[in-house]
Amino acid sequence: MSIGPAWYLGLAAVLFALGAVGVMVRRNVLVMFMCVELMLNAANLTFVTFSRVLGDIGGQSLVFFVLVVAAAEVVVGLGVVVAIFRRRAAATADDLHGMKG
Amino acid sequence: MTRAPHRSARLAGGGHRAGLIAFGHTVRAAHLATIATPHIRYLAVIPEIVMLGGAVLLLAVGSLVVRQVRAWVATLATVAVSGAALGVSLWQWADVTSHGAFTAVDHAVVVDGFSALVNVLVSSAMFLTALVADGYLRREGVDGVEFHVLAMVSATGAMIMASANDLIVVFLGLEILSISLYVLAAFNHRRAASGEAALKYFILGSFSSAVFVYGIALVYGATGTSNLAQIAGFLSKNVLAADGLLLAGMSLLVVGFSFKVAAVPFHMWTPDVYQGAPSPVTGFMAAVAKAGAFAAFLRVFISSFGLLRTDWQPIVYAIAIVTLLLGAGLALVQRDVKRMLAYSSINHAGFVLLGLEAASARGVSAALYYLFAYTFMVIGSFAVVTILGRRGDATHDIASYRGLASRQPLLALSFAVLLLAQAGAPFTTGLWAKLQVVLAAVDHAVPLAVIAMISAAVAAFFYLRVAVLMYTPPPAPGSVPGVEAPAEDLVPLGAPRAAPEPEPTLPEPAFPVPARTVVARAEGPAPAAPAERPLWAGAERTAVALDRLNAELLLDEDPMTLALARGPVPVTSLELGELQGGAGATTGAEEVPPSDVVRVPRLGALAIGLCLAVSVVFGFWPGPLTSFAHHATLLFLP
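Output (structure tokens, whole complex):
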């Protein structure tokens, strides 16, 4: 049995869904970051698969942009986390409830 | 125009790729030599280059100079750079009007009236924000080049979004805009709320970016290209037998954009981030992030997916309705001015969505006009909020605005006019903005227009509430200061007024307020004739009703904040208290409305004056701005 493009797309969709659910249900900020990364990489896998199916290299070059952006995002995100949680023991999103209304 | 040697024949549209590298899918060594690089026409992206170049230069100077760059130097540099960007954007506008729109950088970037208008808007917003931020940064002791650099980079991202002609360029612009804003939101490291806002913004923002990029991937898979014009060309030449992929991609794009423009149900980050971020950043965010995201939203959905409008219009219709109603409804019950303005910005997003939903030239022009007018109103409003936030940027309770008119009449008047402009009062740009989007909606969606008008009426109430409160005298110092005070205290205070006298020391014909405070009555003249009472009765009732409303809202507070405001922080939540420093300070400040006169920085006053001038002058004389937006739409390159 050969593994066709549909399998890759399906895998990407599952990864994306896992990431999306993870961001919503997990409470640790670092795990939430990882889930966002999972979502971005699911999009990358989709790009590569479609690029292969369509015979168009453009899709693969888009992956580079997404990778670079993801790296930049993580740098800033971790910086913010470090700035906030330097004074605290745990990185839990539930503790961030100073503002309500 | 550079073309790739091997083009895919699968695409019925047959256009060439927008990617930087394009060659056959079986990579052979011989072809590696034929990588085609696009010709870059630098003049097409000159506003972005000026803005980004200025930012990089300022950052380099700031890093290389041994002593810290003085605050005024950084501000001056930013003002000069954004002024230059404004100049080249206007030049671009003149160029487009005389020579027509064009695409550049292998069709990845488009220069048309639409992009020129948004570039003008973003440059002006950057200009004003630099003026507003100057006083703030000095007051909080966080001055330096970093704020200005980040803001300019962020503004560049918004400009890129407006001139993007490729989904991946839209994504890059979006990320340049957002990543800088995450840092800006965390900028005031002395305030815990600032960091909390940044983290919330970051998590939800990167989540929405991931959704957005997955949407791009699906659209790419369905149409074979990420170029906006080629997507439109593909859709015009092909009827998809199974368009599930395309529809899924489109809906993910709607979700991603809705997050960025703060449309309900993707608005949940907005109130917290607007409240927690430093006030000048909030104004910048409200103006620039919204303008950039809406510019891309309009361009992608009108020009690329214009033919599929029957598929996406119902979604946008539904989002617009809930955004309009929820934004206005929740703003009513806010006690924090920044939070109220956050919900009001959600409400404004609903109005701009009306223009998108119309999917017509009239709708786009109305949306552009709305964004333009909103920029000046919101930056002006947040400039006032910045100044009134005082040191620590924490005095944002609505109660602290009480009696502002007697302390600082000019500031109160400016804020009142800016709020009325946001409400859509006559002789302000706000009226024309609302009028145009509603007229665009009336063309085909009358219920939506009706809901928009209802929402505008509700919104007018909460803007007026703040305006009236500013012209209400502050409570007497003798009255019991406390969270519960107003509801019970004001009735007895008002009751002994057997012969109510008008306050002669407050010559405010627009908002006649009875002398209700002990001090004022002691100083007041002999009781006026009872016959005068009917003249004042209406206003009196309004004021009492407003007080009662405010009191109810105060009582509705969550127990944790009350506990924090009342007594020492419970031992069990020491860390919590640390995190809640910002919010706790806010609640602590509201008990006694501050009676000190706030020093107004000169540059901040200049920014407020400019915003006020634009909002009022073009409100009286709507011609130039309307034709600007109209011509930008005519020059919209599909």
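Chain B has three domains: 1-35, 42-472+607-634, 485-589.
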